[in-house]
Amino acid sequence: MYSHSTELQSECGMSMHIDLSTNDTRDYRYRELENGLRVLLVSSPENSESDVSALKNSSRTDNMSAACLCIRFGSFSDPVEMPGCANLLCRVLTLGSKTFTGTDSFNSFLQQNKGESGAYCTYEYTTFCFQIEASNLEGALIRFVTLFECPELPEEGIKQALSTMDTEYRKLKVTDQAAIRQFICFLAKDGSPFHKFHKGNSSSIRGKPERSTEAIRQVLLEHFAAYYSAHHMTLVVQSSHSLDDLERMISALFSRLRKIPAADVSFAQHTDSFNNQNFTKFFKVIPNRPKEVLRLVWCLTCLRSQYRANPLLILSSLLKNMNEGGLAHYLDENFLATDLDCDFGTLCEFSNSTICTFFVVHMNLTQTGTQRISEICGAVYDYLKFLAEEAGRCLNQWDQSNWDFLWNDDPHTFATYVQELKIVQESRFIDQPVHSAYVSTISLANMMHRVSKEDLYSGNFLVKETNFQLYHDLITRLSKQNLCIIWCAPDLTSSFDEDTRLMNERTTGLKYIACDIPTEVTERRLKERPHIRFSLPAKNRMIGEQFMQLPCSNDLKPPADYNAYDDRARYRDYGSLWIQASKDFENPRATFAIRITSAIALESVRNSTLLILFVEELRQTLSNKKRENYHKRMQYELSVIDGGFEIRVSGPSKQLREFYYSVISTAFRRTASMDVEMYESLRALVKSKLSQSVADLDILALNLFHFLTHKPAFLLTEQLETLGSITIADQMAFVTQLLCQLRITAYGRGDFDIEEIKSMYDRTIRSISCIPATSIREIRPTAIPPGTYHFEHENTGASNQQAFFGRYCISPESNAYFEAYNQAIVELLLKEAPIFFTDPTATETKVLVRYLRSVSVSRGPGAIVITVQLNAHSRLTEYLGSLLSAFWICVAPQIVAGVDSFEFQNARSHLTCKIRRQFSTVDRPFDTNWNLISTYDAEFEMAKLMITHVNGMTREKLLNFFVKNYVDPGCQKSIMLKITPPSKSTRKKPHSSSTRSAGEEFIRAHMKQYFAAAKLDCNTLNKHSNLQAAIARAYPESSKKITDTLTFRQG
């Protein structure tokens, strides 16, 4: 395993590993209590760098604590006479215990403390979970554990739960996937745990004759007493508390849960549940949704113990691979079916039970496919026979330590495909985001029942132990085994004879007819050799940046500039053409972006405004163009950049070139005249967008900073003012000049012929009919002398009373060393800056610390930015400029110097993860490389270089770097921005000496209060008299006010 792993502390002091994503910096501890309860404790510091976008299914942040208890007891254990018993029990169990009732109950406690809970039941497991703020975790756990000691099970709660079950039952009946799964379950033999109504409703619970609520409660109590044993439970708790504190809570509370030796549950006697003629039929079903879907279902012996070999992941990947020569490609090319996929998952209650394993292949049928279902089934069997032959060739002939296949040109074998998939999955696993505490605890508690401890995250994701004998035997069995065919046909009744009789599935009301498997399907199944000629997918050479971290290959190549080659010398003057051939593993796709720049667009604010109008016109023209049906899956983007514009197209590889040709032919087909009404509408649209940008303080501030620090650059407000004076004639004359001499930079990535990308670049030049720009007026940094410069702007376009203050500390350089150290400073200041600038009297205060590249072109300088947005009437606004100076010069060095070794190491780990995400070519390979090409001079090793500097970073080095470049008055360069809403008064009162004195006193008191609360260790800074001297020279800070921007920008 090549991913990050951590020590998992066990009961007896032995260390075990748990495989983790590199983004996961949490601490783990495993315990097994005397009663058999297995516990996993997770300590996650507050404000950790979890990927917020990954916090699915929860509105909370990772600062919440969460707990999940999963017990091996589900609907398989329901009494025959009372289906849905387990589902009902999990719903009423959380309503309270005999110890804590009424307003002090578990649910009431959560509601009072901004918590939430959930519970659900599957075939073999029941899960209980909750989340709450860390300060209330122990109180919640105290009440949570009593639910499993002495549940109350109130009769009124049972009635409400039955009502909820009825509502969910009605939803199940109209949800095709759930209804089909219940339908398949009833095909099992009588007496099988599958042959039940698993979710239940009030009718199945009350039965006939009808049970009273008291009788139902008694049955629930009996089941609780019989099955809710500690040794069938797993518990996961995650919080910002330390592991020792968590262990203290859990050991004291959950050791009380009872162990019931007689509660062992086994369904081994039911492994032949679907070995009957009822299952191997051709079912034609009328679905709820008007969609033709075909499902092919095999029932296999249980494969749970083989999860490390992950045979169904491999088979699924091959079946749904859209590369030429595969099954999915064959069905799509012959207009039989689309969107082929496979249903299987480690945590899936239906497909991965302890009784058997279901493998389901499903696809959407075309109109042609509905008439040729037997042919489709035959093709599936043929592909399985082909794979069985390929797998058989690899038995006893594959050296798993040999990775030569990655760089030779030989076609794939089954073994090399498996090894390649193994690499791909590991690369993806390395970069997985960290989910919220709520999501993590639910997943972990369930996985603890299914996999070993080290595989809790990777067990459903990786191929950890290749087993070619298993793969061969499994695929061979599937290629010969009879199956269940389910065709969801909305118009089924229209093809019936008068004598045809529909049957009803008794719980979901699903209407269907059952037929024998067609003879043609049986004949194809029984044949020894496949009828259709298939092939394995082409090799995947470009797996991503993380592939470089695996010891198996160094064959990953970055994009190459093909215009630098001799055979394309005539195109070199236009610009660069970067190409990166990459075979997507399952669905061949490609993306092509082209950046077109002209010196004309940078000559004046008028021309920059005309450029915006031109690009918006292109956007409207393209959006009004009718697309061909085969282009529906293609996408395009159009955006304005400094000095030009960018076009990006993406989609299935085989349609990319043709779609791009249609885009550029439409975009650059100029007409002799323009409709006045349409032009006015276009100008109004651009005005609206510019006004929105001006009203957005973040966008406006970035524009102001860019304007002050770069030449040429233009203000949004100036563009908005200029817009009204531009005519149609101006626009047409500008476009002619704009497209005359151009610099063209392009990047193509994906599964394509390299010659196609070259032709797309060449076609662009011919479509525009341009010549190469002999010189482009590049955007350059303004020559700013050392010092702090203050610029105020009154935002007349503001719609609220928010004020904006920002300090932009300009980095002297933008190489990998400065990038790494600048981002490290941001990492340390992230937590402290919001605390320092807190104003208890102000609402909606927003404090941000970040590092930015202020211009999207190479050589653009970076800056560390601290911004504060707050109500313009807040007391803090009067002194905020001074507070920013005090924080940056006096407080920030103390934060850097005072961080302890553990926190500093933690910050470095977080920064390394952040850099990997920023430059990751796994999740966003195109965006990452395009950014490196356009912003970092195509330095594709940027992440590696930055991480090298982070690894060699010490607290002393970072402190010296900070003081030298950002504090020393002789070196540091800063812009202080202040943006205020329109002022009601016409003149500002000058600061009197008494006002300045009061301000200085306020700043000193504010810093004193912060240092008292922060308790920083200042010993490191005290050891460096030279650093202290630099700080003393810099503060109090004198800033120079920018009154004439023209003079300032001229240096």
Report on this model:
By secondary structure, this protein is of the alpha+beta class. It has 4 domains: 27-45 and 59-255, Metalloenzyme, LuxS/M16 peptidase-like (Cytochrome Bc1 Complex, Chain A, domain 1, 2-Layer Sandwich); 282-398 and 464-491 and 499-526, Cytochrome Bc1 Complex, Chain A, domain 1; 560-780, 2-Layer Sandwich (Cytochrome Bc1 Complex, Chain A, domain 1), CATH 3.30.830; 787-983 and 996-1050, 2-Layer Sandwich (Cytochrome Bc1 Complex, Chain A, domain 1), CATH 3.30.830. Helix content is 39%, strand content 18%. It is built from 34 helices and 30 strands. It has an 8-stranded mixed sheet with strand order 2-1-3-4-8-5-7-6, with helices on both faces. A 7-stranded mixed sheet has the order 11-12-10-13-9-15-14. Strands 16, 17, 18, 19, 20, 22 and 23 form a 7-stranded mixed sheet that branches. Strand 14 (503-504) and strand 15 form a beta hairpin. Helix 3 (137-146) runs parallel beside helix 8, helix 17 (605-624) crosses helix 21 (716-723) and helix 26 (880-898) runs antiparallel to helix 30. The protein is globular, with a radius of gyration of 33 Å. It starts with a strand and ends with a helix. The relative contact order is 0.08. Residues 47-61 and 542-556 have low confidence and may be disordered. Belongs to the peptidase M16 family. GO terms for molecular function: metal ion binding; metallopeptidase activity. Residues 428-721 form the Peptidase M16 middle/third domain. Residues 58-177 form the Peptidase M16 N-terminal domain. Residues 980-999 are annotated as: Disordered.
